[in-house]
C-alpha cells in the first residue's frame, strides 16, 4: 500500500475536520471492508458524496472522476494531489488500467456506477464500466449506500442544486457498506439488488420513521398555520391548517373522556369531516377504522366483529339513509356534536397558533414515537373470503409518506384532489395522511366517478395533482373538456393495471401523460411509480428517464426487492420474471389477529425477511430499474366491489338525491362566525358528509 505524502496527509486532515463540522456520519458495515485493494460502488446523490464517503472510511479512497471535472482549474491541484483517476468515457482504457494498478497496490478505488447525479433521489441505470475494472483486477467489489443526503444543499431536491438553506448543521448521514462480492458475480442485476438492500437497511434506521403519526400531523399543520389546508368540493367551504388542527384536538379531547375503546369506526366519504375525524382519533391515541360502506351488510358486520368496533363517527344524513349498515352500539353524529364543541375548538385553534410545536405536543400528550404500534386498520376487499384486516403501524404510514414525498417532490404551490375514499389504502395514505403531514392543500369530493364535477374543481382551484384509478380516468375522456385539466402537472394511477390505450387517449385529449404506480394495502400502499423526467440543468445534458409506458415505474426509496420462483421460492435475478418479494418500512405489521407475524415484527427480526402475496404479482425489472408486472395473479385491485354490491350502495346514495336537503344548523352566538358545522345533503351516487363552513354561507 503506497504511503501518503505530507501534502496529501494535510489535505485529508483539513478535509476531515471541515467535513465533520457540516456532516455527522453514522457508518455501518465497516467490518466488511477487505484489508487489501478493492472496488467501492456507491450510489450518487450529491456533489459532496466523495467527501462524505471518505469520512466513513479511515483509509484514503481513490475516486474515478470525469475528465472534464478533473481538469477544472480550481479543483485540479487538489484532485491530483489526492490521486484521483480521470476518465474520458470515449477513451476509458487508460482509466481502467490505472484503477486496476491501484487496486493491485492495495488501494481502495471508488467508481459511481450510475455515472451521474440522481435527479429524483432514486437509483439510476448502472453502467458496466465497473465490471471491466473488477475482472481485470480480480478484485472484490463492495457496494455502499449513502442515505439521507437527498434534500441537502448539494442534492437536486426541489429541481435545483445549491440554492437551498441547510436543514440541520451538522447534517446527519447514514452510510452502509455491504459484504464483498466476487469479481465474477458483479453483474448489474446483482449489484443493483445489493444496493437496494443497503438502501432499505439505512432507510429503516432513520429516526423520523418511528415518530408518532399524530405528532407528524401536528408538525405539518403547524407550518404556515393560516394557509388553507382543505376545501370541501361540495359547498366550497375551507379550513386553514390551524382551524383543522383546533377542531381535531377538540374532538380528540371529547373522545378521550367518553370512550375507552381501542378502535373507532369512521363511516364517511372523503370530506373535511372525515379528515377531522381521522386526525382526532389518531391524536387521542386510538385507531381509526374507515369502513367501506359500499360492500354490503355482511362484510361490514364481519369487520365490526373482528375489530371489536363499538363506536362509530358519521353524519345524520348518512345514518338516516344507510339503514342496512350494521351500526355499532354508539354512533357520534358530527353535525350534532361539533357545534357543542365550539368553545373548545376556539381554544385549541388559538393554542395551535400561539404555542410552539414542542409545547403543543407536550400539552396534547402525544407520544414521541409510534413505531410498530397500530396506527390504522384497513380491510381488504376479501376476494378470497371475508375481508381481512390489514394492520398498518405508525412506522408504516410515516415511512410510506416519507417515501412518497421524495418521489413526488411537491412544492408549496401544489394542490391535490382527494376524491378516493379513505377506506382504501391509496386514498388513506396519499390523500389523507400525506397532505396533513406535508402541508399540501387538499380539495375533497366524495365521488371519484363524477368526472365532470371533479374536473370543475381542478379548473376552479388550479389543482396540480390528480390521483385516480384507470376506471375513474375513463370518465374524464367522455365528460371533461381539455381546458379543465390544464393546471395539472402530474396524473398518477394505481389500484388497477393502466391500459395502454387509455394512457394514449388521455395524453392525446388532455396533453397530460398518465403515470402508473403500483402498491398494495399491505405495503401502505406505495411501492413504485413512474414520474416525469427531470429537466436538464444545462443545454445538451442527458435527461434521466423516470418513466416507461407499460411498467409501474421505479421502486420507492427504502424498499428492497427480490425475484423468486413462484413454486419453489428459489431466488432469481431481478431481470428474470418471477414472484415479487418486498422488504421495507412500509410493509404492514400483519393481518388482524395474526399474532405470530406481529410478534416477529415486534422482535425486529422480520426486517431480514421479505414479504409477498402468495397470489401476488409476477414481475421483472429492466436494467434502468423500472418494474414490469407481467401478470397480476388472482388480484383484483378495485375500490368498489362486485356489481351487485355497487348497485345496492349507489342506489342508496341516489335515493338521497331525491330527498329534501337536510336543514342546515345555525347558531346565534357571535363566535360561531369563525367555524360552523353543518349537515350537508347528498349528491348523485355519493354522500355529502358533515363539514365546516362559514356561518354567512350557512345562513343562505
What's a concise summary of this model?
The protein is α/β, with parallel strands linked by helices and 700 residues long.
Q: What attributes characterize this protein structure?
A:
single chain; 700 residues; alpha/beta; Glycerol-3-phosphate (1)-acyltransferase; Rossmann fold; 3 domains; 9-stranded mixed β-sheet; 7-stranded mixed β-sheet; 23 helices; disordered C terminus
Describe this structure in words.
By secondary structure, this protein is α/β, with parallel strands linked by helices. It folds into three domains: 6-203, Glycerol-3-phosphate (1)-acyltransferase (3-Layer(aba) Sandwich), CATH 3.40.1130; 213-532 and 548-644, Rossmann fold; 653-698, no CATH class. The chain is 35% helix and 19% strand. It has 23 helices and 29 strands. The strands form six sheets. A nine-stranded mixed beta sheet has the order 9-8-17-16-18-19-20-21-22, sandwiched between helices. Strands 1-7-6-2-5-3-4 form a seven-stranded mixed beta sheet, with helices on both faces. Strands 24-23-25-26-27 form a five-stranded antiparallel beta sheet. The radius of gyration is 27 Å and the shape is elongated.
Amino acid at each position: 500500500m503506497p504511503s501518503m505524502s505530507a501534502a496529501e496527509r494535510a489535505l485529508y486532515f483539513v478535509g476531515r475536520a471541515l467535513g465533520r463540522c457540516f456532516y455527522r456520519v453514522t457508518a455501518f458495515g465497516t467490518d466488511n471492508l477487505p484489508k487489501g485493494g478493492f472496488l467501492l460502488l456507491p450510489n450518487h446523490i450529491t456533489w459532496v458524496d466523495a467527501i462524505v464517503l471518505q469520512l466513513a472510511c479511515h483509509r484514503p479512497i481513490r475516486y474515478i472522476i470525469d475528465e472534464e471535472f478533473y481538469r477544472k482549474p480550481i479543483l485540479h491541484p487538489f484532485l491530483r494531489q489526492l490521486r484521483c483517476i480521470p476518465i474520458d468515457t470515449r477513451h476509458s482504457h487508460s482509466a481502467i488500467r490505472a484503477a486496476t494498478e491501484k487496486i493491485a497496490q492495495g488501494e481502495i478505488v471508488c467508481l459511481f456506477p450510475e455515472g451521474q447525479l440522481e435527479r429524483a433521489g432514486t437509483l439510476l441505470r448502472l453502467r458496466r464500466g465497473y465490471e471491466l475494472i473488477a475482472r481485470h483486477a480480480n478484485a472484490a467489489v463492495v457496494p455502499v449506500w449513502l442515505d439521507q443526503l437527498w434534500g441537502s444543499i448539494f442534492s437536486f431536491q426541489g429541481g435545483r442544486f445549491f440554492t437551498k438553506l441547510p436543514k440541520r448543521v451538522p447534517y446527519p448521514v447514514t452510510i452502509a457498506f455491504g459484504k464483498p462480492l466476487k469479481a465474477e458475480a458483479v453483474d448489474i442485476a446483482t449489484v443493483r439488488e445489493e444496493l437496494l438492500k443497503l438502501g432499505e437497511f439505512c432507510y429503516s434506521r432513520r429516526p423520523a420513521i418511528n415518530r408518532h403519526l399524530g405528532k407528524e400531523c401536528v408538525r405539518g399543520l403547524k407550518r404556515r398555520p393560516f394557509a388553507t389546508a382543505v376545501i370541501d368540493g361540495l359547498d366550497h367551504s375551507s379550513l386553514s391548517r390551524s382551524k383543522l388542527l383546533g377542531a381535531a384536538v377538540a374532538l380528540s379531547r371529547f373522545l378521550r373522556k367518553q370512550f375507552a375503546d381501542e378502535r373507532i369506526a369512521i363511516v364517511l366519504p372523503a370530506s373535511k369531516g372525515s379528515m377531522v375525524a381521522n386526525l382526532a382519533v389518531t391524536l387521542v391515541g386510538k385507531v381509526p377504522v374507515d369502513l367501506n360502506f359500499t360492500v354490503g351488510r355482511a362484510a361490514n358486520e364481519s369487520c365490526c366483529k373482528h375489530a371489536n368496533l363499538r363506536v362509530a363517527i358519521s353524519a345524520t344524513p348518512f345514518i338516516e339513509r344507510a339503514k342496512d349498515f350494521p351500526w355499532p352500539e354508539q354512533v357520534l353524529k358530527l353535525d350534532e356534536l361539533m357545534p357543542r364543541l365550539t368553545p373548545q375548538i376556539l381554544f385549541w385553534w388559538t393554542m395551535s397558533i400561539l404555542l410552539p410545536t414542542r409545547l403543543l405536543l407536550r400539552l396534547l400528550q402525544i407520544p414521541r414515537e409510534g413505531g410498530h404500534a397500530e396506527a390504522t386498520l384497513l380491510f381488504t376487499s376479501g376476494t378470497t373470503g371475508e375481508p381481512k384486516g390489514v394492520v398498518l403501524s405508525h412506522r408504516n404510514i410515516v415511512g410510506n409518506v416519507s417515501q412518497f414525498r421524495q418521489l413526488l417532490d411537491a412544492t408549496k404551490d401544489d394542490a391535490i384532489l382527494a376524491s378516493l375514499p379513505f377506506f382504501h389504502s391509496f386514498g388513506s395514505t396519499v390523500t389523507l395522511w400525506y397532505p396533513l403531514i406535508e402541508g399540501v392543500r387538499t380539495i375533497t369530493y366524495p365521488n371519484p366517478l363524477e368526472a365532470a364535477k371533479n374536473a370543475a374543481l381542478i379548473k376552479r382551484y388550479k389543482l396540480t395533482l390528480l390521483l385516480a384509478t384507470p376506471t375513474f380516468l375513463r370518465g374524464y375522456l367522455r365528460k371533461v373538456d381539455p381546458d379543465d385539466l390544464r393546471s395539472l402537472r402530474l396524473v398518477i394511477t394505481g389500484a388497477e393495471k393502466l391500459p395502454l390505450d387509455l394512457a394514449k387517449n388521455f395524453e392525446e385529449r388532455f396533453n397530460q401523460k398518465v403515470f402508473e404506480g403500483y402498491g398494495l394495502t399491505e405495503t401502505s400502499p406505495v411501492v413504485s411509480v413512474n414520474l416525469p423526467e427531470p429537466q436538464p440543468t444545462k443545454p445538451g445534458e442527458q435527461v434521466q428517464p423516470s418513466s416507461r409506458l407499460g411498467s409501474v415505474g421505479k421502486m420507492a426509496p427504502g424498499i428492497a426487492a427480490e425475484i423468486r420462483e413462484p413454486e419453489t421460492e428459489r431466488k432469481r435475478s431481478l431481470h428474470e420474471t418471477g414472484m415479487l418479494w418486498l422488504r421495507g418500512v412500509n410493509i404492514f405489521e400483519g393481518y388482524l389477529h395474526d399474532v405470530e407475524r406481529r410478534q416477529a415484527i415486534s422482535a425486529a427480526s422480520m426486517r431480514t425477511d421479505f414479504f409477498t402475496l402468495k397470489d401476488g404479482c409476477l414481475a421483472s425489472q429492466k436494467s434502468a430499474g423500472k418494474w414490469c408486472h407481467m401478470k397480476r395473479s388472482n388480484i383484483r385491485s378495485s375500490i368498489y366491489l362486485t356489481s351487485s354490491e355497487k348497485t345496492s350502495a349507489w342506489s342508496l346514495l341516489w335515493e338521497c338525491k331525491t330527498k329534501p336537503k337536510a336543514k342546515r344548523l345555525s347558531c346565534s352566538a357571535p363566535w360561531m362566525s369563525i367555524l360552523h358545522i353543518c349537515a350537508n345533503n347528498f349528491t348523485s351516487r355519493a354522500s355529502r358528509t358533515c363539514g365546516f363552513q362559514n356561518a354567512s354561507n350557512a345562513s343562505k
